[in-house]
Amino acid sequence: MSHLTYLESAVVGMIQGVSEMFPVSSLGHNVLIPAIVGGSWARDLNVASPESPYLAFIVGLHVATAIALLIYFWRDWLRIIGGFLSSLRDRRVETADQKLAWMIILATIPVGIVGLAFEHTFRVLFAKPILAGIFLMVNGLILLAGERYRTRASLAADVSVAAERDQAAREPAARKPAFRASPVPASPVPESTGLQPGLLASAEPELAAHGQALPVPASHRRQQTGGLALREAEVADARRADRRLAGMRYPQAVIIGSAQILALLAGISRDGVTMVAGMGRGLSREDAARFAFLLATPVILAAGALKIPDLLGPLGNGIHGQILLGSVLSGVGAYLAVRFLLRYLRTRTLTPFGIYCLVAGLASVVYLGLVR
Fold first, then answer.
1. pTM of the entire structure?
2. Helices 285-312 & 6-21, crossing angle to 10 degrees?
3. Distance CA 306, CA 292 (A)
4. Under a CB-based contact definition with an 8 Å cutoff, are residues 358 and 137 in contact?
5. Which segments of 220-331 are extended strands (E)?
6. Alpha-carbon span 349 to 365, nearest angstrom
7. Domain limits of the chain?
8. Fewest Cβ atoms closer than 10 Å to its Cβ: which of 11, 45, 208, 323?
9. What is the rounded distance in angstroms from the CA atom of residue 144 to the CA atom of residue 81?
10. CA atoms of 255 and 278, how far apart (whole Å)
11. Helix segments in 191-226, DSSP class H
């Protein structure tokens, strides 16, 4: 694989990291982009060729992607692993961390078994550029349908999570004496909403229905700029989210985790189908995304670790620098992507990603099937 250039490794690494987190299929993009570029890219970066060194490279990049997830969720994984170990020690499952640990283990078993048994078959049969474009369109339809036909339980969970976060944000302020050098008025409430200023704390759903953002006092905006305070709020959010996730039944977690099997098809997003499955089982969009990332971490890490021996062997001769570059960019891209998505999905939907997958998949099929 000495033909792998630094430009190719940089592009593939960044695509792998970002698209693995975004619900748009990293494997689908890594199949389609070389085919669309053509030339040496199409010849050298062919994931469907027997014993593909390119596949070893992009799957090996999964290690960097998984490390980025571990770095972002390191506090959570310490709690989850601690919960697993304490459950073995005590021989019972009682706390939220203990239950979540076993949920993740049970939910990753189906995709692990199917991946080990059929990964090669799926890749050889389905990892073709035209099919990847078709499956990318299917992925778009899954995302759009997941948003369009969300259950009442999932919609209610969104409201509950937002109210819980708002309540947690107001409690510390209630315990501390307010001090202000001079009064700073809050942003005015649009008259069209018909809301009283005193109702701001519970007005977010109504304002959203009118297309308005919730007004935030300037003093509060200044307080939010503190990096430490923001991180503390994120840690508290994570703990609350894990308690909510632990409220699921084990069969529900297994069903959600089994959705990852579809990601063996190039063009189907692991995180996308898992998020949709989570919302289908009544999770809020935000909790579904968090559970998807937690479930993906051991699967991505295991898949990448299995390919590391290949990259350290003959397949990696002469390209260690390219592997390092691709891994760094993959890890950085994954970290930034998951950080962005967990904030984005608090108030926004998967619909833009679904539209993108439909357009990109259709354009790829037309270009590869009719133009080329």
1. 0.81
2. 150
3. 21
4. yes
5. none
6. 26
7. 6-155+239-371
8. 208
9. 35
10. 9
11. 204-209, 218-224
